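Replying to the earlier thread about multi-chain prediction with a worked example.

Input:
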Amino acid sequence: MAVDNETVRRIAFLARLKVEPEKLEDTKSEFNKILAWVEELGEVNTDNVTPLVSVNDEALSLRQDEITAGHISEKILKNAPAQEFGYFVVPKVVE
Amino acid sequence: MSDYVIETEKGKWEVICGLEIHCQIISKSKIFSGASTEFGDDVNENVSFVDAGMPGMLPTLNQECVHQAIKTGLGLNAVINKYSEFSRKNYFYADLPQGYQITQFQYPIVGEGFIDIDLSDGKTKRIRIERMHIEQDAGKSIHDIDPHKSFIDLNRAGVGLMEIVTKPDFRSPEEAGAFLRKLRSIVRYLGTCDGNMDEGSMRCDVNVSVRPLGTNECRTRCEMKNVNSVKFVMQAIEVEAKRHVDVYENDGEICQETRQFDPVALTTKVMRKKEFAHDYRYFPEPDLPPLILSDDLINQIKKELVELPDAKKARFVHELGLTPYDAMVICENKEVADFFEKAAQGRDAKKVANWLMGDFFAMLKKKNLDIAQSPVSAENLGKLVDLITHDVISGKIAKDVFEIMAETSEDPEKIVEERGLKQVTDTSAIEAIIDAVIASNPENVASYRAGKVNLLGWFVGQVIKQSQGKANPAMVNKLLKEKL
Amino acid sequence: MNDLTDITIAESLSKLKAKEISPVELTQAYIKKLDENHKYNAYITLTAEKALQDAHEAEKRYANNTNRNLEGIPLGIKDLFCTKDIKTTACSHILDNFIPQYESTVTQNLLDNGALFLGKLNMDEFAMGGSNETSYFGPVVNPWSKETPLVAGGSSGGSAAAVAAKMCAAATATDTGGSIREPSAFCGVTGIKPTYGRCSRYGIVAFASSLDQAGPICKDVTDCALLLNCMAGYDAKDSTSSKREVPDLSAFVGMDIKGLKIGIPAEYRPDGLNKEVASYWDKAAKILEDCGAEIIHINLPHTKYALPTYYVIAPAEASSNLARYDGVRYGLRVDGNGLDEQYINTRTAGFGAEVKRRILIGTYVLSAGYYDAYYLKAQKVRRLIKNDFDEAFKKCDLILTPTSPVEPFAIGDTKMLENPINMYLNDVFTVSVNLAGLPAMSLPIGLSQHGLPLGMQLIGRAFDEGTIFKAAYQLERGANFVRM
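Result:
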């Protein structure tokens, strides 16, 4: 399944990355090389094979419903590139 | 089958609608972190490093959220899946700190179920539930502080949600409205969600399509996100369905898209076209192994489940003799139903229901109070009904007594005693009043005796009036007939 | 003894306990080595002053006999572990100003055992790389380099180089596809990736959550046991961490291996395998056989598919794990016109080429229409790879393989750089272990004809690190590798 320029652009946008127009061809060809390589998996017969989701067979543990965190807004905001009045600030979002 | 049909000069159309409802789970801490779910605290105070999506932070699942989901699933008459998985739904948004939402996709905790809704024509209809899963809520973006900036508060980020998805079983706005009220009633009974749509703890996405009446077509649907009241949901369905009909009848096409309902203009407008639709790239959440539930746990929760509105309603009809309508109204709200049961204990439930749905509800509405804040307690309402039943006071006096109760919260027995409102049942006292009335109205007496028997009512009224309402009407009647 | 930095942790501890040396002396000796060896670019952040302060505290503890398991032992910490109030960058521009307000569980465990931290170690950006050349702070130079600067391996290149050059007594590292074992092999030191779930991932910047595991890189097998015992253990903050008890791993060091069955997988010996690597492999098998172990030939039929499987699963998880680096709450922000453009500018400037490559591949394999063909397929093959090991471990107790098919290569090697797949192929012997969640250790076996270290890998059953330590110690004695 070789990808085209449009797919590379669409995937880049989904990942919020920019592929410069002059690098589009290189990126595409590299992309296709890797995909062709991983497509070797197509050779393997996986009929009736259950996908491996969790390598550890222990059951998920549940946490008691207790308040154990919070009231650390200073620490939460400590690394913020922009903050005002205790909020994180981003460019205006128009939906 | 609903009779809701959109009829135009060109034809008849049927509405097809499905709902997706997000219910905030009632729990102390968030679904994947130990931060508080408290609403209204200072900005970014109920935020842990996990909620802020800090590097290396991992989710841990809150047991209470799982139990609440099981309860809700049982309340929806649904299958509880003993195996479920969490997945990541990937998209970028300012108030989604991890860049993905932890939700359930392929294997939700709750499978198929149903809710029976009561319609105004007295019929019930079964609405099928497709699934219910649990997930985390996003934070809040505030757009109106600054013209160029949005402000992000993560207090809500990570609060547990249950997303309930129905089958496209609704054929009218009324059905959708009845469903939402019923669902709200169920989750409130269960204590799993407070069901307040205006505060956003219950949010509804509405999917609408139409088809020519009598066909089985599947036409393109549009989704309206976050419609935040029952009334708006009903209006949105109506408005959107009409838009579809209008487009089709003018040879247009409906595009699959996300739209927004404007409750002021009563229109819907496009938010996002399909070509800009997200590609959420769901995959199993590697930070959380699958969730395995035991039969023991599910059975334990089943055993502890409260009586739900339908069961209560049936009991009120069959054991207490209420009409299905009265039972439905009383059972919609658990506090009301509990109040009613307490008031009706050992009395004529039907009479109590009449009082509750009449003067009592009117009083609450007038005073703008919740039933929990009622100045009239369930015991006192019951006692009032007793006073009438035992002929201590008349129905008319009872209304006055109730007014006093609503002001003073006093025991009706005390009010009647202190204010001397007891019905006069002493024959001689009533006879004395009757004699006086007969003596001062010779013409009417003559007319009555000449055959105008319907004047009896006038005489009764006069006597009761003279007694300041305290004379027992039945006795007055009997004695008057004798004397006249 | 020439230098305090020559001796192992076990030896240091006995001298510290005997008060032959002091923690301050020991720390100063390492700081001196560290200062002399900046050319290796192993550290990117130094915390020597704090380490010296802590060494004084450690001295007090030795004086009043309250010393803990690693009291006063100076360690280096891979920059993937979040350290409270100490800059943690994952060697990425996007995090190069990030100061965590929390401590990772593994580093906290080490601190609680009395260890002190000399600084943060260089690595491939977000642990994505096999040569430490993707670091935003430049490549680590292998201390074994002759004229040409050679790579230290990756991603934990800084950890392996620092231990080899005695710039710390031992280092923490992480391993997603070989990131502990390959650099250990390249730098002639010993490192173990424990079973998935042994060490908490809480506070470790995530690369591929279902594969990532922390472990130690040390001067020898004995130190690895000591360190891993202090790092490992159940952590409620990581839902994938195991509740299985961690045995005293040091107790296995020195045990005899008579009758132990060592499997040699045929698929790891293709025709083109480097002759020196092959002959050292034979030598290692012979050493173990001479100690009483039995050599058994086994098959791991799906070995060929391990790398493609890994290069679907790891980038997919990474694409999601790295979505949080969006310039909103921490890290680099590059302004743009609107939020989406800010995201794009930030991430494009903040991530290096290899990280971007993997994010794109990962995004693609999860996207609509491709999920089944790539991600789901890879998860199924992953199951088959794990089954291969399950089958093999019915016949043998351990599996012996080389760690890497190649010896350390030059920094900037054109063959490696012209095609990313060439670099990926270096992980051929290590990735299966991560896919199956198994424990595996790399230890030096000897020098190549170029005088460069080569490593052997011992793979054990899940949660059976003990048996690895038994055999590894015997192999270490037999190989008699001379540390730098």
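The radius of gyration of chain C is 21 Å.

Feel free to reuse this layout for your own posts.
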